Amino acid sequence: MNLLEVNEICKTYGDKTVVDHISFQAQAGQILGLLGPNGAGKTTTIRMIMDITVPDSGEIWFTADEKRTAGVPRQTIGYLPEERGLYKDAKIIPLLVFLAGLKGVDPETARTRALEWLERFDLKDYAYAKVDQLSKGMAQKVQFIAAVLHEPRFVVLDEPFSGLDPVNQELIKTEIKNLAARGAVVLLSSHQMNIVEELCDQIFLIHQGKKVVSGTLRQIKESYGNFRVYIETAADIGTLEQLPGVADATRLSGTRWMLNLHDHVTPAEFLQNIPADAEIDELQVVRPSLHDIFVKVATGGEEL
Description:
CATH class of the largest domain: Alpha Beta
CATH superfamily of the largest domain: P-loop containing nucleotide triphosphate hydrolases
Largest sheet: 6 strands, mixed
Number of helices: 10
Radius of gyration: 23 Å
Helix content: 25-40%
CATH topology of the largest domain: Rossmann fold
Shape: globular
Strand order of the largest sheet: 6-7-8-3-9-10
Number of strands: 14
Distance between the termini: 32 Å
Order of helices and strands: EEEHEEEHHHEHEHEEHEHEEHEH
CATH architecture of the largest domain: 3-Layer(aba) Sandwich
Number of domains: 2
């Protein structure tokens, strides 16, 4: 079983602590979302896991085939960086074969796998095109292929959906799920919170180098406690705004309102207090979205 263990890692540059005693685990078949605002320490954390940067203190362990090693062996890593780095004058198949060779894959196997991936991504006609002939979205798909062609056990994806239209986002999401299903440990860093909510089994959110919250999406949303109620009505909102358990009300548009409930007020408690004659066209009760939680953390709001 593959397992990543990050224990109390720290990194300081000068008098600034960029990563401050971060610890988490990710298991085989699991997609872990590493999230945080710009400058939170995500990139430094990823660099330390990949042994690009050495931690000042703490430990990183990786287990594969029942063998536990200090650090993640480089041959087992598949990395899709946020900064794209394909050689613009290189042709696609020779480039993919070369990059797979750096990870120990023989040329014939690499070529076969590359052609299969290109066909899957509707890029087979571009097999011998140069990188600079591709659109941004096409190049992104080729770089994704380069990251996984050697069938890595640990996959790091930093903003993998950049430059992709909705159709190709769905394609990449499917392949990320397939990587996890085949037993890889997948570490995903993205600012597209809706996609993170859909893909990630576990979430680790950091701010200013420190852990803010971690757990499943459900656990994180529950830790914020309060529900939100979205109401569509042309009637006066005053009666609903004054119901027990309502903290405040915000008009979102002419007839659409958002009510924030107090902590620990359940949907059932709110609903049973609504008058029978209340004129409501539509009502939805939800937890705060991961996007809302992220914004609160990034702007220095409530900590957990």
